[in-house]
Design brief:
Blueprint lengths: L6 E6 L3 H16 L3 E3 L7 E6 L4 H17 L3 E5 H4 L4 H6 L5 E2 L5 H11 L39
Parallel strand pairs: 1-2, 1-3, 3-4, 4-5
Length: 155
């Protein structure tokens, strides 16, 4: 891996379906050599996986986007709020957001990340990072080790 891989902050809001999307995006980011940051100021970009199901969740998502923009300035929005009316609500309130995608938009999120923060991954030298924890972990999980969510809506 490169000495200073690009760093991404990630916030996951909402239901277990959103959590599954977050795990999949985080796993892909890590596989491509991105570092994950636990704070806005250490991240080069912040991705927010939003919820848009109920009014209080919409407000929480919008507040989180505003906070990330104020602290970092470079934000990609994904999830249900991004998919709601094609992200018009987010774009009207925060026109400076780098990209807006809907739920299950894994490739669109990665395309936005690549556009605004190209990976420093060298396929001739680097390998897929080892999983965190013991050798049986596969991917990044945001749930306790003894269970995981499965999105049956995807089949």
């Amino acid at each position: 891996m490169t000495a200073n891989p690009p760093s991404i902050g990630f916030i996951s809001l909402g239901c277990p379906k959103a959590l599954v999307d977050s795990e999949r995006i985080l796993t892909q980011l890590r596989a491509e050599g991105y570092a994950l940051s636990d704070s806005y100021d250490k991240a080069e970009i912040v991705i927010i996986n939003t919820c848009g199901f109920i009014d209080s969740a919409v407000e929480e998502s919008l507040e989180t986007i505003g906070e990330a923009l104020a602290e970092n300035g470079r934000v990609i929005v994904t999830g249900c709020l991004g998919g709601r009316d094609e992200g018009d609500l987010v774009r009207k309130k925060y026109p400076q957001v780098l990209a807006i995608t809907g739920p299950q938009a894994y490739q669109e999120v990665m395309d936005a990340v690549h556009e605004h923060l190209p990976p420093s991954f060298d396929p001739f030298v680097d390998v897929i990072p080892a999983p965190a924890g013991d050798d049986t972990d596969i991917g990044i999980k945001l749930t306790p080790r003894h269970y995981a969510y499965l999105k049956i809506s995807e089949g």
